[in-house]
Amino acid sequence: VDAVRVYVNSSSENLRYPVLFVVRQQKGVLSWQVPLIFRGLYQRTYNYQEVSRTLCPSEPTPETRPSDQIIFVDVASMAPFNIAYELLVTRLENFQLETNKPFNFTASPSQPQYFLYRFPQDVDSVIINVVSDAAYPCSVVSVQDIVCPVYDLDHNVEFNGVYQSMTKQAAITVQRKDFPGEQFFVVFVIKPEDYACGGSVPSSIHGNVNRTWNLQRTKNLQVTIVPSIKKSVYVQAMFFSFLSFLSFYLGSVVVAFVHYIRVQRKASAGRLSPEHGSGMMTSSHPISASTPEGSSYGAIDESSSSGGHQLSSPERRPPAGSDTDSSVEEESDFDTMPEIESDKNIIRTKVFLYLSDLSRKDRRIVSKKYKIYFWNIITIAVFYALPVIQLVITYQTVVNVTGNQDICYYNFLCAHPLGVLSAFNNILSNVGHMMLGFLFLLIVLRRDILHRRAMEMKDIYTLDYGIPKHFGLFYAMGIALMMEGVLSACYHVCPNYSNFQFDTSFMYMIAGLCMLKLYQTRHPDINASAYSAYASFAVVISLAVLGVVFGKNDMWFWVIFSMIHVLASLALSTQIYYMGRFKIGECYLGIFRRAVMVLYTDCIQQCSRPMYMDRMVLLIVGNVVNWSFAIFGLVYRPRDFASYILGIFICNLLLYLAFYIIMKLRSSEKLLPIPMFCIVATAVVWAAALYFFFQTLSSWEETPAESREKNRPCILLGFFDDHDVWHFLSAAALFFSFLVLLTLDDDLDTVRRDKIPVF
């Protein structure tokens, strides 16, 4: 294909009498004026005396030779005086781009460039890579069909085809099926201003300054068109994704089978016996209602001890045939006698608490209470996910219809389209969250079934030994992990600033549910209800949305948020310190009076040590961490507010988990091989996952053009990038983290509850 370029130059700066150029061809007309005027931000104008345009090429026909083109150039001006101009018509030697061959050229706002590319016979998709050594001037790369006229000026380049803004790097994936003629134009336009790419705007609009500025706005570019991946790579990537996580299913089956064999051998050998002798339970020692002078408040009377095991009163169970689903029992916190409330206040303020003190309520009713977590999170997931899916489909449709690839922040050097999706690899890599979440649900279901069978057989170990088995929170965690995969996939349909909270909302819930589960383990009677927990998550997500809207530069928002953060930390600390025996509803300011009283009695009046030393240490460290986060946010005001909140949740979870494991080892409890393996696997996989997470491939905190400077090629199978590997590893890390919580206290299954300390 032959192409012709027309260059014109005029020394006239008279905007009232410009020189008009009209080029007439066989299939089109192209016109412009000199000085050529571009408009920028705030109605700034930029005048160019030199203009160079490529004429729309024509295919040779049998009637004409390849070199024959008839062109008419009309020059006119309404000026009452003569105007000198220069006209030069040249034939382009390198108009057609070749595959895998870099091509260098120069462009400016008044001298745009475009070139032709034809698909080779064996190539169905190509990636157009454009690079430049200089970030500015800002430029636009466009892919347009073979239609005349070609839109190659700043004010019309967005009218046709697919386009991206660019500083140092741009990449556009083009598929053969989108161009029936199997060829397209690659258009390069230099913008008159840089604000669209994150650059500064000139402060002066005087003519002389404009001319000096204009002479500097040329950019050297290099374009390389390389073949993209073949369809077989898509198949390999999908097989890899599913088989990788199916191996977790196989490993779980093997572990379950080995466990079954060991249990059967122990059962056949008759070695299943209580830890202490015949398994006959001794009666508990009474708790003194009147505290003798000089004794600890609510302490157990040691004088009557005769060497037997000290137990609190056995669990209160309803008589056979009673209705455990009674709403009256649920609404009254399962206690129907006023004496029990006094009993709670005495027991839960003992200096040394054991699990039997906090597992006194009926197991079946408490289990139903925790199953509300499971049913509520399913409802939340449905109502949250459906609008999200609808919104991201709209985003993707807008991208496909308008061709504006600045809407979504992909890693364009590794964005493989499939159907209407622009980056299928980023969506496929989230399959791990869904598969491992479902696997975790199956593992929890197996444990639940085994526990129910043991209860039906009246197995003594399931009645008064070990941690009380309540699986509602575990089911909720499995659903949350699956929904994290769904919403992360939705976010990656079109990642941008507006929908980033979709990717983090269920991460908040996962972190919160893990902390609740960890606390529930040894505080089954006093853990938060599902309604209050999910209401708290709703407040957090609301704050995240407000942070997206107001958290950029508004100081007032950060002041209010920091105050809420600090006050919430203090309120929660007081509740934990007093084991939930202080009710916030009794007095709005009472909880903070209680916090001051704690500081006075435990830190000033009793300088020796606080009444609850372990709890005090945890809460002091936790408050220092949270107050540090509040101060950091107030000072630096991070733009990524959603990640900032997520960091708060994760740090609190890690702090509590570390405290729990340390206290467990300090209490001479053991870590069995499976939880020990899960802890090591969790640490290793999280370390690897975070390495890939911090390999920033795009950033919606910057302009789309600046974000593309961070784009990198694929690193796995030629299909997945660093962030996809983060998806794979984070799914495995969350799965192992859940298994840690599920198996951490398996060593206590044969230990009486009055011997298991509470911390």
UniProtKB/TrEMBL annotation:
Cellular compartments per GO CC: lysosome; plasma membrane
Originating organism: Edolisoma coerulescens
Q: Which family does it belong to?
A: Belongs to the SID1 family.
Locate the compositionally biased regions of type Polar residues.
Answer: 280-294
Q: Does the keyword Membrane apply?
A: yes
Give the protein name, as stated in the record: SIDT1 protein
Q: Name one GO molecular function term.
A: double-stranded RNA binding
Matching InterPro entries: SID1_TM_fam
Q: Where, subcellularly, is it found? A: Membrane
Query: Which spans of this chain does the record mark as coiled coil?
Result: none
Q: Does the keyword Membrane apply?
A: yes
Which residues does UniProt assign to the signal peptide? none
